[in-house]
Amino acid sequence: MTSNHSPRIAVVIPAYRVRNQIMSVIENIGDLVTHIYVIDDCCPDNSGAFVTSECQDPRVQVIRLPKNVGVGGAVMAGYQAAIQDGVDVMVKVDGDGQMDPRYIANFVEPILAGEADYTKGNRFFNLDSLEQMPKARLIGNAALSFMSKLSSGYWDLFDPTNGYTAIHSEVARHLPMKKISHRYFFESDMLFRLNTLRAVVLDIPMDAKYGDEVSNLKIGKVVGEFLVKHARNFVKRVFYNYYLRDLSIASLELPLGVAMLAFGFIFGGIEWMRSFQAHAPASAGTVMLAGLPVIVGLQFVLAFLAYDIASVPRRPLHRRRIGRSATESSTGGEQ
Fold first, then answer.
1. What is the pLDDT of residues 250-295, one digit of tens each?
2. Cα separation of 47 and 43, whole Å?
3. Of all residues in the chain, what percent are helix, strand and coil, respectively (each to 5)?
4. Using CB atoms within 10 A of its CB, is residue 278 exposed (0-12), middle (13-18) or buried (19+)?
């Protein structure tokens, strides 16, 4: 992939109750970045007005939203502004100072090299840095990571609630921005939406950084809500990828496996109750009739999961789209 201009890199900073930290974040953003969008998400501290009055950086553009739309809505507003300005890659950095701007080059490089469409931080890569992470958050993130693997289909990713991300504009413009969750489920929902586009996502190792800021995301309070939303996205993803867009052996393995597991457990439970009430052991045939569907059904489900894990997208979407556009332009010119 060739380009006739230097890459345009933007940083999108959702601003909500970050008045005390946001200037430090902006000041530490290096020269690699050409545009900085500060999204004032109807902040009660007037973070946007504060940046406008105090910041002299010509790269900074403050966007004030008329009502609070959550971190996801603020990021989408920043993406839309960056796309209109012809930016190539957008990096999302929180304004509370917990995301070191020095990592920006690490997030952007795989995208510019054509190796990924979307990159996200992973605070679990360096085991030494995990000592800084509160134990409750560590356990909660591990649980959320497993749920995210199931719902998004990106089995090689971890730390799904990490908001330090970067995306190619060619991919961002194809996201259903109005449908993506605007609140705390935003990062996880993004992964689900990216998988429906068959985008390539990579984890970027980073250190966990915690100061005196108070996180608005309480893992213990959102696990139940996230579980329901992950289950919904899992069903949608399976339907899209294995029945609507394509059919494969995995399309048969999952429903057969689930049906056999359900039959085995229900039939076995009923027969166990009968045996318990009659004070008599079940016959060998009854045990086999209950146990065999469970064993075979489990094998079918595991086979589906193995197929799903092997189906993680590997070819970047933005390279395919840019390459197709270049080919069409070349063909049109020859005609």
1. 999 999 999 999 999 999 999 999 998 988 888 999 999 999 999 9
2. 6
3. 55, 10, 35
4. exposed
Contact predicate 209/100, CB 8 Å = yes
Q: Total domain count for the chain?
A: 2
Q: Are the CB atoms for 170 and 94 separated by under 8 Å?
A: no
Return the sign of the alpha-carbon dihedral for residues 17, 20, 23, 26: negative
Q: What's the full length of the chain, in residues?
A: 335
Domain co-membership, 196 together with 267: no
Residue numbers of the domain that contains 188: 9-242
With tokens 């089995």, the residue in question is 155
pTM of the prediction? Answer: 0.86
Cα 99 to Cα 63, 93, 107, 160, 285: the distances in Å are 21, 6, 12, 15, 61
Pair 170, 80 in one domain? yes
Report DSSP letters for 255-316, one per residue. HHHHHHHHHHHHHHHHHHHHHHHHT-PPPHHHHHHHHHHHHHHHHHHHHHHHHHHHT---S-
| CB of 82 closer than 8 Å to CB of 10 | yes
- Structural domain includes residue 4: no
Q: How confident is the model at residue 118 (pLDDT cuts 50, 70, 90)?
A: very high
State whether 206 and 303 are in the same domain: no
Read off the DSSP letter of residue 326.
H
Query: Is residue 90 within 8 Å of 10, Cβ to Cβ?
Result: yes
